[in-house]
Amino acid sequence: MELVEMTVPTETSFDHQAWRSRGAEIAARGRAASLGIKESRRIRDGSLWELGDWLISGEQYLSAAYDEAVSITGLARGTLYNVASVARKFPISRRRENLHFSHYAEVASVENEELQDKLLEHGSKKELSVREMGRLVENEWSKPLARQEQGKKREEEQEERNKKKMRRIAVWLEPGPYELIKRVAKAKRMARVEGQYQPGDVLMDWCVAYFNANRGAIMAEVKELEAKLEQERETNTAEKPEQVSPVTASLTILVDR
Questions:
Q1: Which residues of 117-149 are buried (b: 16+ CB within 10 A; e: fewer)?
Q2: What structural domains and CATH numbers belong to the chain?
Q3: Of the candidates 173, 179, 100, which has an alpha carbon nearest to the alpha carbon of residue 132?
Q4: CB of 221 within 8 A of CB of 211?
Q5: Of 174, 225, 251, 255, which sits most exposed with the smallest number of CB within 10 A?
Q6: Region of poorest pLDDT, from 16-20, 30-34, 56-60, 81-85
Q7: If you write DSSP's letter for every residue of the chain in order, what string do you get?
Q8: What average pLDDT does the structure give for the chain?
Q9: How confident is the model at residue 46 (pLDDT cuts 50, 70, 90)?
């Protein structure tokens, strides 16, 4: 892979027209490269680095650099942003000759620079493909980070439960209702609804909603049951019935999985 270093002009030497011409040359070279030819892949890869460096140099002097870049290159604004972002995160001193631009695009999501270099070094030594690099990033960064964030989320939720003095109830369900609740939980997760949304969370939401909508009737039934128990206690001194206290605590309903 050929690494091309752009000379970033000083404020006094910036030539707007030269910058536009340079961008047109880079874009033309990239379009001319065929994706199916190894040599052309090398040319295209070098062009992406050039394109990123070119965009960064224009950002320093032009408030509408990306508007012009879209017109000059014919590329979408989002594509230009992504290319510039990768080039900014990986200056020339961090670019390895046997890794493609796409390798760096995979690693760019990693926030830890030391881990970035570790992943790139491993990919370079093992000559990983872009897909293999993506899997490496997922296993070494994305999944551990997701587990860490999930653990933090659970701690926050548990702290919130403790503040509200919530109590846990295990519920046994038949397969039909259980599978339906699982489907609802999965749909909410896919829709990125706030919260983890496990099956027990769905059931809890339904129970809380039902209780809020029928609070009067529920409390009336509780009082009726309490009165009945009290009456039985008075008339049956030989057997002491189990006492039931009014329900005042919030309930967290979790389904055993």
A1: eebbeebeeeebeeeebbebbeebbeeeeeeee
A2: 16-142 (1.10.10), 165-255 (no CATH)
A3: 100
A4: no
A5: 174
A6: 30-34
A7: -------PPPTTT--HHHHHHHHHHHHHHHHHS-TTSHHHHHHHHHHHHHHHHHHHHHHTT-TTHHHHHHHHH---HHHHHHHHHHHHHS-GGG--TTS-HHHHHHHTT---HHHHHHHHHHHHHHT--HHHHHHHHIIIIIHHHHHHHHHHHHHHHHHHHHHTT-EEEEE---HHHHHHHHHHHHHHHHTT-SS---HHHHHHHHHHHHHHHTHHHHHHHHHHHHHHHHHHHHH-SSS-PPP-----S-EEEEE--
A8: 80
A9: confident
What integer is the mean pLDDT of 1-16?
56
Confidence of residue 6 (pLDDT cuts 50, 70, 90): very low
Q: Which band of pLDDT confidence, cut at 50, 70 and 90, is reported for residue 248?
A: very low
Please identify which residue in the block is written with the tokens 């699982």: 182
